[in-house]
Amino acid sequence: MSTLIPKGSIIASFIYEKSTNLKGYEKMNQLTINEVSKNEGFLGNELFSNNEKYIFISYWTDLDSIQKWKNNELHISAKKMGKTWYKSYKLQISELQNNYNLEKI
């Protein structure tokens, strides 16, 4: 992600390990990525992985925007599958204090 996220933005870090039962996961993952990008207050996302653990980081203007996403019908449907698709997961919410960026091209 090359866009500089403004100081004070809210960061939602979803840290997880996938289970072996991933039936329907890829389709729902694509649907939710498409849906979340339409939400007011959504600034972008990044995904990092070492092929065992994953960190999906989403950036938001404020906590109200995250709450609206939490109540989104598609997101609620996806969350219902969490115990099937994930071996473990946790969600951490934080506020961005600083944002420094170096990109070598």
Written account of the structure:
By secondary structure, this protein is α+β, with helices and mostly antiparallel strands. It has one domain: Alpha-Beta Plaits (2-Layer Sandwich). The protein has a four-stranded antiparallel β-sheet with strand order 2-3-1-4. The protein is globular and about 40 Å long. It starts with 9 loop residues before the first strand and ends in a 10-residue tail after the last strand. The mean pLDDT is 94.
Could you say what the CATH architecture is?
2-Layer Sandwich
**CATH topology group:** Alpha-Beta Plaits
Q: State the helicity in percent bands.
A: 25-40%
Highest-level CATH class? Alpha Beta
Structural class: alpha+beta
In a few lines, what is going on in this structure?
With 105 residues, the protein is of the alpha+beta class. It is built from 4 helices and 4 strands; from the N terminus they run E-H-E-E-H-H-H-E.
What's the topology here?
Elements: E1 10-18, H1 25-36, E2 42-49, E3 53-60, H2 63-70, H3 73-80, H4 82-85, E4 86-95
Antiparallel strand pairs: 1-3, 1-4, 2-3
What labels would you give this structure?
105 residues; Alpha-Beta Plaits; 4 helices
